[in-house]
Amino acid sequence: MTELDYYEILEVNKSCSSGELKKSYRKLAMKYHPDRNPDDKEAEEKFKLVNEAYQVLSNEEKRTIYDRYGKAGLEGHGMGGGFGSANMDDIMDIFNSMFGGAAGGFGSGFGRAARQDPGQKYALDFEVELPLAFHEAVFGCQKTIDTFYKTPCKECHGTGAKDGKLETCDYCGGQGQVIMRQGPMTFAQTCPKCHGRGQKIAQACASCQGKGYHEEKDSVTISIPAGVDNGNRLRVQGRGNEGKNKRRGDLYVTFLVEEDEHFMRHGNDVYIEVPVFFTQAILGETITIPALQGELELELKQSTKDKEQFVFEGEGIADVHSGRKGRLVAQVRMVLPKKINTKQKELLEELQDSFGIESRPHKTAFESTFDKIRSWFKS
Questions:
Q1: Hey, which residues does 144 pair with through a beta bridge?
Q2: Which domains does the chain carry?
Q3: pLDDT in tens, 282-300
């Protein structure tokens, strides 16, 4: 079986500095962290490999041995003993900076600092999705959102336990995490029984059925700025769930923008397809097309091509941050007659004949090709 190179795992060169090594490790650990990839076995395996590679290459002595003898040379030099203290402190520092430590965020699953408050049964921030019509996103609007937010149960003080009494988790011994070993790797994993709290409910609170919270109805009106796009989020401070200290977290509103029948958005640019009859394209004509702010005059030059684009600067969507407007791009869609009558056919044939050889470009284009093909079969 081919052994993966630690430098390749961390996507760095063999001559990389410790700073470059840490930067790449930080990026990959965040990318493959189990909290960001739930139930993804492939990401979990990559996460383990990234940690294994970093604990070796971030240690100067182990890196020297690895560079000279490979992975086999590390046997007996701490490869089976988990993280060294210096490496673990380094890894903990990286994870605390990435995931916020005790302050919340994704939670790293490493160390006691990342454990949740045993009495806090839910996140203070939460997210809702808000559908917007195309024009509402383009021009901005006001919307009233009805939500339900969590507030701690007064009977159990938000613990979910009768009279607020909790017991030490017997699975992890109150640590909130369990130590797992897989091959040469030793890593900490959130306790599956208490979910990292270190404590468990002895008897469920009758008022909240052990949930630790009740839900209250709320309504908030928000001003949506012009230019928001599908997937953009707006933070509404202080309208999230309520904590034990009576302070509320934040509400995050994610916008789902509906598509328009005629306009298609790409960033701050807007595209519109303009049907043009073939005679209009040949002769040239000035036509009126719809725009976000009303109408625009589109001047078709003679012999306009199918799919040709005409750009109108400053007629697109305002950037949600700078207010600068994008472009409106009008793309021609050539329309041919579905059927023609006898008179129209005669007129078209007369028109075609008037162009002479120009009206049959295939003959000029393929003349030399036909001669070449004939020569293939001459004896």
A1: 221
A2: 6-114 (1.10.287.110), 117-158+212-259 (2.60.260.20), 263-335 (2.60.260.20)
A3: 999 999 999 999 999 999 9
